[in-house]
Amino acid sequence: MDKAKSNILCASAMLLASSLSFAQEAPLSLTASVGAEYDDNISVSALDTTTGQSDEALIVDFSAGYMAMKSETAELELVYDLYQSKHNSLSDFDLQIHTLSAFGSREVGDKDLGLYYSYSMVDLGSEELYDSHSLTPSLGLALAEGWYNRFSYSLVAKDFASASGRDATQNSLSADNYYFFMDNAAYITLGARLEQEDADDNELDYQALYLKTAISIPLHYNNKKVIDFKGKYEHYWRDYDNTTASIGKKRDDNQDLIGLEFIKPINENVDVVLNYEYTNTESNLPSVDAEGNVISLKVAMDF
Questions:
Q1: What domains appear along the chain, each with residue ranges and CATH number?
Q2: What does the alpha-carbon distance between residue 298 and residue 284 come to, in Å, rounded to a whole number?
Q3: Secondary structure E strands in 165-205
Q4: Confidence class for position 16, pLDDT limits 50, 70, 90
Q5: For the chain, first and last CA: distance in Å?
Q6: What angle do CA 114, 119, 121 make, to 5 degrees?
Q7: b/e burial code for range 268-301 (CB count within 10 A of at least 16 → b)
Q8: What pTM, to 2 d.p., does this model score?
Q9: Whole-angstrom Cα distance, residue 189 to residue 175?
Q10: Distance between CA atoms of 164 and 197, rounded to whole angstroms?
Q11: What is the CA radius of gyration of the chain?
Q12: Which of 52, 78, 199, 292 supports an S-S bond with 204, CB 3.0-4.6 Å?
């Protein structure tokens, strides 16, 4: 665990040191959104907990980005993000996430090389839940006109404040394929990820396969764009390596997720966003076996 954190921090320090030496005066970008959310089954996936209770919440998201370096072939962006939910009744499930991240990329011939680092602090119900470090190197290739492929490896180290058995190191390999059309205003994507997690509590060690597909397309009326539509479908199979004591057998999960998003531009800087997400998790662990629907409406702004 400590070695994984050390490796992530060393690599991210090398990323910053190598790129900041080329830093130029660069703009600051700000984005923010505020809205309301309804969840018919409040859950905490990080703790394998579902409540079976519904609630409404105020949701706020703020992000500040600083382009520390940008040239024709390379860039480095530093970002701070804050997410906050405030529930109407179930305040123990109020979620606050602070994330600091850095993303560097460089073009080498027809290849895009990227390195992403993030550090997140997650609080649940005003108490510290866990923090995590993640490091993701990636390779992007445009193999044909309209087609773009991205391959990545991710290392994540999670450190829980009280549930120390959930401290874990996660490794994953991903491949994502994008097809752009409508003069690059729309795209379809298909992706797969293999994931392995090694936790301090060996009941939580697992292997997983994730598949996903998504579409993003502008919808027009009388040759004028009126709304942006995004849709996605994801499925995962997660097999646990060891027996879970509470059920006397190895845990086995699989999940379907459907997401729909409608974005209505108000002007150049303001959008209204309607989002719906359905999840159906099937598991032989009763606390995880559940369905859920989440719908939100928010106003998003960028400056």
A1: 2-302 (2.40.160.40)
A2: 36
A3: 168-181, 186-199
A4: very low
A5: 39
A6: 155
A7: eeebebebebebebebebeebebebebebebebe
A8: 0.89
A9: 10
A10: 15
A11: 20
A12: 199
